[in-house]
Amino acid sequence: MSKLFMKPLKKSIVDRFPNISITDADISKSASVKDLWKNNQWAFSDPIDEATQEMWNQIKNNYCVTPGNIDSITWKAQSNGLFTIKSLWRNLNVSRCKVPWYKIIWFSGNIPRHSFTTWLALNNRLNTKDKLVTWKVIPTNICSLCNQYPEDVNHLFFSCKFSYEIWNCVLKDMGKRRLFLCATVYQIWLAKNGVIFNQKVANSDQVFGCIKADAAVVANYHLVLLPVF
Ligand SMILES: [Zn+2]
Q: What is the DSSP letter of 145?
């Protein structure tokens, strides 16, 4: 039988009445529901205050106990009561509007690490230097790739001279394809991290070579290369 204060009645009484003290309710913390269900009715002690009375009334008016029924666990986020990772994910994430451009990033035949990095970049969730300075992790926000301008997402991936050269190569030689868009963002991010963590300064030709190599890994990639911009 369920513990009254722990997991009864689908939702804990503690959750429903957060201001009620268990000790004030004059019921043992380990009390079971069956301890308070006598002769087919609730048997609560006299309430010590109005809040406790309200709690007792809430229980009396809304719940009854069917002795003999076996306790069961039901996953309320799913109509059939069964737990699934998908329903958990839906429950944790408040539904938000789909952005019209999401298919530019997430598409059949993508390279997940490229898409993930690009998604973070477009949502300004990468730890670029402008953020690290704000968090006092590093002392300066100067771009690791050009050493000239403050580094934020827009600068790092689009207006930085280093990145600009790479985009020129990509657009000229590989076209406007979403696979290359994500690969380019990913490789620019890798190049920047290479400077910071390995003191390895890549040039734009090397980064462009990596982008082409990544694209070549995707078998039959021409099937998924749809123009996007
Ligand atoms: Zn730069």
A: T
Residue 208's SS3 state is helix
Q: Ligand 1 centre and the CA of 139: distance in Å? A: 17
Task: State in Å, rounded, how far the first CA of the chain is from the last one.
Answer: 62
- Token output for 46: 């006299």
Statement: residue 224 has pLDDT above 60: no
| Centre of ligand 1 from the C-alpha of residue 162, in Å | 6
| Angstrom distance (rounded) from CA 183 to CA 181 | 6
Q: Are 218 and 109 in contact (CB under 8 A)?
A: yes
What per-residue confidence (pLDDT) applies to 5? 46
Q: CA–CA distance from 119 to each of 37, 91, 175, 185, 227 (Å)?
A: 54, 22, 20, 10, 18
* DSSP state letter for 3: B
**pLDDT-derived band at 149, boundaries 50, 70, 90:** very high
Which among 20, 11, 12 is positioned nearest to 50, based on CA atoms? Answer: 20
Determine the distance from the C-alpha atom of residue 205 to the mean position of all C-alpha atoms in its chain, rounded to a whole number.
35
pLDDT for the residue 169: 92
Q: Give me ligand 1 centre to Cα 174, in Å.
A: 23
- Ligand 1 centroid, distance to 27 Cα (angstroms): 66
Per DSSP, the three-state class of 142 is strand
What separation in Å is there between the alpha carbon of 49 and the centre of ligand 1? Answer: 66
Q: Around Cβ 138, how many Cβ atoms within 10 Å? A: 12
> Cα of 152 to ligand 1 centre, how many Å?
9
